[in-house]
Amino acid sequence: MGGLLIVFVFAVVVALSSASYLFTPRGPNQTVIRTALIMTLVSCFLMWSITYLAQLHPLMRPRHSKIRPHNPTEHVTF
C-alpha cells in the first residue's frame, strides 16, 4: 500500500483545500481564514507523510543490543 496511500491522502488534502477555499464565508477576514485552513491542511499532511515514509523506509536498520536481555524468571538476591 506504500506510495499509493500517500497519493490518495494527497488527493484528499487537495480536495479539502479546494473546498475550504471555495466555501469560506465572505467578510473582512476571508483571506486570513482561507490561508489558515489551507496551511493547516498542508502542515498536517506533510507531518503525516514524513512520519509515514520514515517508518516505511527507515534510514538505519534496527540493531541488536550486545547486553544480555533481562530474564524476568531469574530472581536476584542480595
From TrEMBL:
Membrane-related topology note: Multi-pass membrane protein
GO biological process: vacuolar acidification
Molecular-function GO terms, alphabetical: proton-transporting ATPase activity, rotational mechanism
Keyword Membrane: yes
Signal peptide segment: 1-19
Stretches that traverse the bilayer: 35-54
Compartment(s) of residence: Endomembrane system
GO CC aspect terms: endomembrane system; vacuolar proton-transporting V-type ATPase, V0 domain
Keyword check for Signal: yes
Entry keywords, A to Z: Hydrogen ion transport, Ion transport, Membrane, Signal, Transmembrane, Transmembrane helix, Transport
Pfam family membership, one: ATP_synt_H
InterPro entries documented for this protein: ATPase_V0-cplx_e1/e2_su (IPR008389)
Family label: Belongs to the V-ATPase e1/e2 subunit family.
Protein name: ATP synthase subunit H-domain-containing protein
Naturally occurring in which organism (per UniProt): Lobosporangium transversale
